[in-house]
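User: Batch of two.

Assistant: Item 1 of 2:
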Amino acid sequence: MSEHEQVRVHIVGAATSAAAHGPGQERAPEAFRAHGLLERLTAAGLEVIDHGDVVHFRMEPDPDHPKLQSADRVIEAARTVAGQVQRIAQAEPDARILVLGGDCSIQLGVIAGAKAAAGAPHARVGLAYVDLDCDLTSPQSGNGIADWMGITHLLDAPDADARLASLGGPRPLLTRHTLRLVAADRANAYEQSRIDDLSLTRYLSQQVEEHTADVLAELAAWADGLSLLSVHVDVDVLDQTAFPIAEEQRSDPGLSVAGLGRLVTGLMSHRTARIITICEVNPDRPDDPASAFAELNTMLAAALSARR
């Protein structure tokens, strides 16, 4: 892509809260659009193609399966997202893809679709997972909510559910070499043991906020070895005392909106960056949703228009 060629962005709505502990996130893609996302991206000089919402699921209690609730719906949502990501990435390898979630489990589909599109066995698809949580609980150790098990299944950890871990064919979808946990402050004892056992690379939010340039330099060196970089943004990584929009309500400091913007824009400026997924937005949380979404839309526009 030349320096002056217009960047094309494909928007994929993943309107699902099937893997969550409560409803709300399934309305986030609609809220992003209603509050001017497409107009903001166009104003940033991007060519926008909106594929609409490819999946629609609202969280429903599933007491009959306490270890992994709503597994069939979670799998269907992830597979649908995977198929759409694969089609776009194969048709336009240089275009960028913005996936509007939805809960975090859709990242399984994003990575599965990206890997399927890459095709070649040696293709290295990597994920920068920006999330206050490490999402390393499992059907054996957690509370049954798949939203908090994403990394477990991407890595095909020993306690993963085979149905979720095998969405992309050969397992695992990721390894410790193709994953970075970024601003991941929260890990219970079980998750910390998994981080240690799997030797995962992890950056804490204070490190990201105060030493952004150093963190980005390390992440860029890592991404140099990838064929495609996907960036996951869970908005609960934000300081919720200042920016309450995430589904999960936390008192942890997290990142500032400006700090998250610098991080995501820096990641998306890497030559391998193709996909950004934003999750865990609950439109009911902010007192002033128009202002809150305007800030997120501006952040996404800056990241997606970042020159490689």
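Item 2 of 2:
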Amino acid sequence: MNYEDGRDDEDLPPGESARWLAEVAHLVDDLDPVPPGLVELCQFAIDIEGLDDEVEFEALRLADGAQLAGVRGDSPGAITFYVGDLTVMVNITRTGEHQRIDGWLVPAGEHGVEVRVADHDTANTTADEGGRFVLTEVPRGTTQIRVNLAGGRPRTVVTPAIVF
């Protein structure tokens, strides 16, 4: 590491570089600690099991202008995700300790839909020929929706993990 005064780590007294790094680590931990649950959320988001090597895997993105502010406290309502030619719109409705997920896929078709909620069983359904699907009594928490598209170009797409 080069310092403003031109010194390198080799020019510092023994242990001085390690002392400075420990001080910086301490400041980071105190001033900007890792939010509670972030590590678990990241692990959940990347832990996609059962994907075949032959299946194309894509991550859906939030539609431009979509905002999730207040998702933890309020019912988020409609959220739209997209990737390439696929759009997934979901409407989340709180029902006590659970949530109801009404969804629509474009292009429409009888595609498999899987809803993963951290620390809970996975809920599965199939969209109807119009692309509509409904899951009731889905536990609240860190949620991810996986769509297994059938038809001409089979592939799997996954939404970002969102806390409902």
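DSSP finds two helices and eleven strands in the chain.
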